[in-house]
Specification:
alpha/beta, TIM Barrel, 5-stranded mixed β-sheet, 27 helices, 18 strands, disordered C terminus, binds ligand C2E, binds magnesium ion
């Protein structure tokens, strides 16, 4: 028989309910357990049935159910048989004593022990009451046909009282509507506990025949167990995600519906959150599905312990998790931050230690929707908003709806645009400040949208990263710019090309092969290519990117850290990185002549780079004074509007052709 799960935090309503049930049971117990006489003949049968009741209580079978674990015990059948064979007083004593012993052995909370004892005392008394009303008081010396309807009625009363008492307690603990809880559980209980009860008359009948038949009754009871357990396993499968054992979308929606109904009545808010694991597709694609599964299991475990009691956590498939937590939007944001920080510590999967992050979208009942479907849709829109704006968590707002549609269609247009050749590459010269080395150009992507016109990288790189379009984009920029490099070299310009590579592309294990193929196709040495990776990203995801970086560097491709100074790489991390160059972020360079602290920073970075044997490039040179100062500091390369703005290939070529660092013979050739 079910019993309310032993949760630690119980509501006031539950305490009042338990007090009432226990008081009622005490009255019934006091009134009947002493007054009715004891007839324990035959004693061996009494002992055998008592032992079975106790064994049943001591060995409950755990059965996984939609709402967690429930237990089924066979003590019911034997307790009912005792009632029929020996009367209420012995049956009640044995039943109550067995449950108290078993619960105490399991160290159940005193409230739970008391409640279970009261529940059993009332259930068996209800059955005895029906027998008394029918004028057919036990003990029964045999069962005749006319007694069968009375038997069924008594068994029914036993079942219903037991079921109603247990479900009410469990529903109060779970904060769910009582009638719905009873209705939901009825079928399962009828098939398990109901069938067990129906077997009691057979136990009684066989005891009249011979005592030896009573233990045989155990066998069919076991069959009931196995069947019930299998049914429960099937029901569990239908409502749970096999990988994480969390509820699935169907169960989440059902439970949320009930939670919303309760919140509506009690005028409370409920936050619905959708959490998406950042870059999970890349983890899965590059490291394999088993690896991905392991990450998802760890994410599920961490979210579960961070979500706390009372929250509903589910997995919707893929890398999407859903949560429903009581509280207004402000509390929801605090909860979301707590959930996200539970993912902060690196996850150890096989030989790797991964940094996993997530994005959460929040929609709150009743502010952002009243139905499950509406709240989930709005949480989804908010989640995309969080991803798009690079914040880890966003609360739904009406205006996001339009943006989310815009974003999706823009990403699709970008993908098509790349295929149609709408993506252009501009080149910004990067020149040696102290002579000697050949010139270089940084490839910068531009998108000419058919309606919106020219869009800079800030308008589409983030979008491409979040929607997977970054892969074809990077390949396209690499192809166009390496082709350009080949053309320039054919003209005699000894130029190398720097291409920006998103950190996401570094998780793409195909990247080295793609680059190797392009270098071979354009007959370029690998030293002609430098890949620029933004500092903050490379440090955060170094473990993941390491394999691809090492392979590229092994091929002879140069690696530069872009926007250096904006991230938080420590010196030791810098030393471990397989890099050749650092590019000082333009925010320190542009104003270094007027801001002494910027100048100190730039000077330190130049020295650091030199000491580590790295090439140092300064970005964002806008004046001659800054250029001169950088030259004095010994910075190797310079890049900026003062030297040359990003421009189409022809314009950039004219610039290189005019540089005096190039051999004069070549200048004549290209002039
Ligand atoms: P970045 O790699 O740091 O590129 C330099 C950015 O600084 C360029 O902006 C350039 O126009 C700008 N810039 C250069 N000199 C100066 C200057 O003197 N003053 C000022 N104020 N700005 C200067 P852009 O072209 O808008 O690119 C922005 C960022 O977009 C790039 O920063 C890079 O991180 C990213 N990006 C560009 N193309 C691609 C690409 O093909 N793939 C990827 N993954 N990212 C790209
Ligand atoms: Mg760059
Ligand atoms: Mg930069």
């Amino acid at each position: 028989m079910p019993s309310p799960t032993g949760k630690t935090s119980v509501s006031r309503a539950f305490v009042v309910y338990v007090a009432f049930t226990v008081a009622l049971a005490a009255v019934v117990f006091g009134a009947f357990s002493w007054r009715l006489g004891w007839r324990l003949e035959p004693l061996p049968l009494f002992a055998l049935l008592s032992a079975f009741v106790l064994i049943g209580e001591l060995l409950p079978i755990p059965v996984p159910r939609r709402n967690g674990l429930t237990t089924v015990t066979i003590s019911t059948a034997f307790a009912f048989a005792m009632l029929l064979r020996f009367g209420l007083a012995p049956a009640m004593w044995v039943y109550v004593a067995s449950t108290v012993l078993a619960d105490a052995g399991r160290r159940g909370s005193p409230v739970k022990v008391l409640f279970n004892a009261a529940q059993y005392a009332l259930a068996i008394s209800a059955a005895a009451g029906v027998l008394a009303l029918a004028g057919d008081q036990p003990p029964w010396t045999g069962i005749v046909t006319s007694q069968v309807p009375v038997l069924l009625a008594a068994g029914g009363a036993f079942f219903l009282v037991n079921h109603a008492l247990a479900c009410t307690g469990a529903a109060l603990v779970a904060g769910l509507p009582i009638p719905r809880y009873m209705r939901d559980d009825l079928e399962f209980q009828a098939w398990t506990a109901g069938c067990l009860l129906a077997f009691a008359p057979a136990v009684v009948a066989s005891s009249h025949s011979t005592l030896a038949l009573v233990p045989v009754c155990f066998v069919p009871l076991l069959a009931v167990y196995v069947g019930g357990r299998q049914a429960a396993v099937n029901s569990h499968r239908a409502y749970h995600d096999a990988l994480t054992e969390l509820p699935n979308r169907a169960l989440f929606s059902e439970t949320l519906q009930a939670k919303l109904a309760l919140a509506e009545r009690e005028q409370r808010s409920v936050a619905v959150m959708l959490l998406d694991v950042d870059d999970f597709k890349t983890i899965n694609d590059t490291l394999g599905h088993e690896f991905g599964d392991s990450v998802l299991q760890q994410v599920a475990q961490r979210l579960q312990s961070a979500a706390g009691d009372g929250a509903i956590l589910a997995r919707f498939g893929g890398d999407e998790f859903a949560l429903a937590i009581d509280g207004d939007p402000r509390q929801a944001q605090e909860n979301a931050r707590r959930l996200l920080s539970s993912l902060d510590a690196p996850m150890d999967v096989e030989w790797l230690s991964l940094n996993v992050a997530g994005s959460i979208g929040i929609a709150s009942f009743p502010y952002h929707g009243r139905s499950v479907a509406e709240l989930l849709r709005h949480a989804d829109v908010a989640m995309y908003r969080a991803k798009a704006s690079d914040v880890s968590c966003a609360v739904y707002a009406e205006e996001y709806d339009e943006h989310s549609i815009d974003r999706i269609s823009l990403a699709a247009q970008l993908r098509r645009g790349i295929e149609r050749g709408e993506l252009e590459v501009h080149y910004q010269p990067k020149v040696p400040l102290n002579g000697g080395a050949p010139g270089a150009a940084e490839a910068l992507a531009r998108w000419t949208h058919p309606q919106l016109g020219s869009i800079g990288p800030d308008g589409f790189i983030g979008l491409a990263e979040q929607t997977g379009v970054i892969k074809p984009l990077t390949e396209r920029v690499l192809e166009v710019s390496l082709n350009q490099c080949r053309l320039w070299r054919e003209e005699g310009l000894d130029v190398t090309i720097s291409v920006n590579v998103s950190w996401r592309s570094l998780l793409d294990h195909d990247l080295p092969a793609t680059i190797r193929g392009l270098l071979a196709r354009f007959e370029l040495p690998s030293s002609a290519l430098c890949l620029e990776i933004t500092e903050s990203r490379i440090v955060a995801d170094l473990r993941r990117a390491r394999r691809v970086l090492d392979e590229l560097r092994g091929m002879g491709v140069r690696i530069a850290i872009d926007d250096f100074g904006t991230g938080f790489s420590s010196l030791s991390q810098l030393q471990q990185l397989p890099i050749d160059e650092i590019k000082i972020d333009r925010s320190f360079v542009t104003h270094m002549e007027t801001d002494p602290s910027d100048e100190i920073l730039v000077k330190s970075i130049v020295e650091l780079g030199r000491n580590l044997g790295l090439t140092v490039t300064a970005e964002g040179i806008e004046t001659e004074a800054v250029l001169e100062r950088l030259r004095e500091l010994g910075c190797d390369f310079g890049q900026g509007f003062h030297i040359g703005r990003p421009a189409a290939a022809d314009e950039c070529r004219s610039y290189f052709a005019g540089l005096d660092v190039l051999p004069s013979a070549r200048l004549t050739a290209v002039g």
